[in-house]
Amino acid sequence: MSELKSNIPEGPLADKWTQHKNDINLVNPANKRNIDVIVVGTGLAGGSAAATLAELGYNVKTFCYQDSPRRAHSIAAQGGINAAKNYQGDGDSNYRLFYDTVKGGDYRSREANVYRLAEVSGNIIDQCVAQGVPFAREYGGLLDNRSFGGVLVSRTFYAKGQTGQQLLLGAYSAMNRQINRGKIKSFNRHEMLDLVLVDGKARGIIARDLVTGEIERHAAHAVVLASGGYGNVFFLSTNAMGSNVMAAWRAHRRGAYFANPCYTQIHPTCIPVSGDHQSKLTLMSESLRNDGRIWVPKKKEDAIAIREGKKKPTDLSEDERDYYLERRYPAFGNLVPRDVASRAAKERCDAGFGVNKTGEAVYLDFSSAIERYGKEKAFTSGHKNPSKEEVIKLGKEVVEAKYGNLFQMYEKIVDQNPYETPMMIYPAVHYTMGGLWVDYNLQTTIPGCYAAGEANFSDHGANRLGASALMQGLADGYFVLPYTIGDYLSKDIRTGKIPTDSPEFDQAEKDVRDRMQKLMNGSGQHSVDYYHKKLGKIMWNKCGMARNAKELQEAMDEIAELRADFWANVKVPGTLDSKNAELEKAGRVADFLELGELFAKDAFTRNESCGGHFREEYQTPEGEALRDDENFSFVSAWEYNENPREAKLHKEQLTFENIEVKTRSYK
C-alpha cells in the first residue's frame, strides 16, 4: 500500500495558491500555438477549461456525446453557485466558505484544495457577470444572494431556478468565440472510448463518432477529463440519461486511480418515484428549502389516512404537523446539509409517516412563506390591514417570482398545484463526490491526464454542500487548470505534434474494437436496460442511503454475477460501424457494472459513517453519523483490477492544520 503525493505547496494555507502560481513553470504565447490539448466533456468544467485554454493560445479539441455543448448536464443545475463575496454583510469570508465546505464534507476533504476553491470563488462571479449571466439582483441593482444548506450566511448567487443553464450559456459563448477563431475544434456526438498512453503519458484518445459509428484517433500533449459523475450507476437518479462514467473509467483502466467511489450524494428534495416505468428522477432545487418547510403528520393514523386518500395535507393543523428538521436541528432547521436532511426523511418514512401511496415521501410546504411574503408585500405597498385573500394573492406572486419555473415543473410532472397543496419530495441519487484521484494540480496518477469538476474527487469530501458543484466546476475550468496544466506542458515545447500512427494508438484502437465486438457477441437474451435496472436496484437497496457489511458483501457478489451474465447474454442489435444507441448504452453499462462492485468494496472497507457514506453499524445513539478519525482520515484511491474486489487500495492521509476536527453538529 503506497502513500499518494498530493503535491500541496508549502507555506501558510492562505498563501499556498498565490505562491504556487508564482513558482510553477509557464509556456510562452508563441509556444502555446504548438501545443494541443484534448478536453472531454463540455459542461461547466470542460467548457470553461476549453474556452480559457484556447484563449491562452493552446490548440484545443473538445468532445461531447451530446449534439451540442449546450446540452451538457450542467444545464440541469437549478439553485445557485456559492461565492464568498459577503454582499449581505452577514460575516462571510473566504475562511468561512472554506470552513463550511470542509465541515459539510464531514472532514474528509483536502484543506489546501478547498481553501483555493473558496479563494477563487469571487472571481467566478465577476467572470460570469462580465459574460452577461443574468444573476438575480436586489432592488438597488446589486447581485442578490440566498442561503443554502449547511451554512449560516447567504452566499448563493442565482438566476431564478435556472442557474446552471445561464452559467453554461456563458461558458458556451466563450467556447464559441474560440471555435470561430479556430482555436477550438469541436467534436459533438463523439464519445471517448479509451485513453492512449505513450511512454507512460496521456497523449490522446480513441473516440467513436456516434452518428457514423466511425472509430477515430485524436492526439494531444495532454488530456483533460471533465465528463461529470457516475450517479447513473443507480439507474434512477437526477442525472441526465446519458450521464456515464466511461471517460473516467477508461482512464482508470489505463492506470488513473479512482478515489472514494462510495461517497455519493442523496439529494433530499426530489420528486418521489412513481413506478417501475421511470427512467430518471427530477430534482427540486435545494433553494426551495429557504422558504419551504418540511414536515410529516405527527400521528401515524393521519399519515395512513393521507396515503389512503381519506385526508389531504391541508386538513392538518399546525399542531398536527411534525416539522422534524426544525425539531431535530433547531440551529439550521430546514437548511441542514443534504446528507442529514436525506437520512432524516428516510427515518420518518421508515417509521411509517410517509405521505404518498408508497409511503416514501414527505411534504415541502410553502404556505408559511406565502403568508409571510404576502404580509410584507402588502405592508410595503401601503396596505396596513390587508385581507387574508390579498395576503395570499400577494404572497403567491412573490413566491412565483423566486421559484416559478420550479413550481411549474413540479405541477407538470405531478399534476398538483404546489401553491395550493404542499409538494411531495423524497431523497434521490444526485451527485458523486468520488471520482478520479487528482493532486493539487488536478493531475491524475497518469502524467498528462487531468480531471476537472465532478469527474475528480478533490473538493467536497464525503458530502457536497448545495451550490458548490457549479463553484467547483467553474473554479477548476476558469481559474485552476489553465495555470497548473502549463507547468506540465512547459516540458513539451520541443515535442512537436503527437502522431496517431504509432503502436500505442494501434493497440488502443484494437482494444476498443475487441471490446465492442465482445459486446456484440452476447447471446441476446436480455436488453441493456434489463441489466442496468437490475444493477440500479442492487445499488439502491444495498449501497444507498444506509449500508451495512452484510448487504455490501451481498452487493459485491450479486454485481459480479450480474456482470458475468451481462457479457454472456446481453442483446446489442445493429452493427459496430453505424449509428447504434444500444451499443453506446452497452459500453456505459459495462463500465457501471465494474464501478458498482468497486463502489461496494470501498463502502465495505470504510468502517465508519461520514457524510453521504452511512454505515448502520457506526452511528450515535441519536442516529447521526459516527466517524472514526483515528483510522479513516484518508482518501481511498483504488488501483484498477479486472476483478474490482481485488483492486489495490492506496491512501492519501488527510491532515487538518487550520480547522479543528470535531463531530459535526447542526443542532
Automatic annotation (TrEMBL):
Q: Does the keyword Oxidoreductase apply?
A: yes
Pfam name, any one: FAD_binding_2
- Top class in the EC scheme: oxidoreductase
What this protein is called in its record is succinate dehydrogenase
Q: Which residues form a coiled coil?
A: none
Q: Name one GO molecular function term.
A: electron transfer activity
Per its UniProt record, the required cofactor names are:
FAD
Q: Which domain of life is it from?
A: Bacteria
**Protein keywords:** Cell membrane, Electron transport, FAD, Flavoprotein, Membrane, Oxidoreductase, Transport
Active site residues according to the UniProt entry = 338 (proton acceptor)
Q: How does it sit in the membrane?
A: Peripheral membrane protein
Task: Tell me where in or outside the cell this protein is found.
Answer: Cell membrane
Please give the family membership noted in the entry: Belongs to the FAD-dependent oxidoreductase 2 family. FRD/SDH subfamily.
Catalytic activity of the protein: a quinone + succinate = fumarate + a quinol
Recorded hits in Gene3D superfamilies, A to Z, give: FAD/NAD(P)-binding domain, Fumarate reductase/succinate dehydrogenase flavoprotein-like, C-terminal domain, Succinate dehydrogenase/fumarate reductase flavoprotein, catalytic domain
**Which positions fall inside the Fumarate reductase/succinate dehydrogenase flavoprotein-like C-terminal domain?**
532-666
Task: List, in alphabetical order, the GO biological process terms annotated in this UniProt record.
Answer: anaerobic respiration
**InterPro entries, alphabetized:** FAD-dep_OxRdtase_2_FAD-bd, FAD/NAD-bd_sf, Fum_R/Succ_DH_flav-like_C_sf, Fum_Rdtase/Succ_DH_flav-like_C, SdhA/FrdA/AprA, Succ_DH/Fum_Rdt_flav_su, Succ_DH/fumarate_Rdtase_cat_sf
Q: Name one GO cellular component term.
A: plasma membrane
Organism listed in the record: Leeuwenhoekiella aestuarii
**Enzyme Commission (EC) number:** 1.3.5.1
* FAD-dependent oxidoreductase 2 FAD-binding domain residues: 36-470
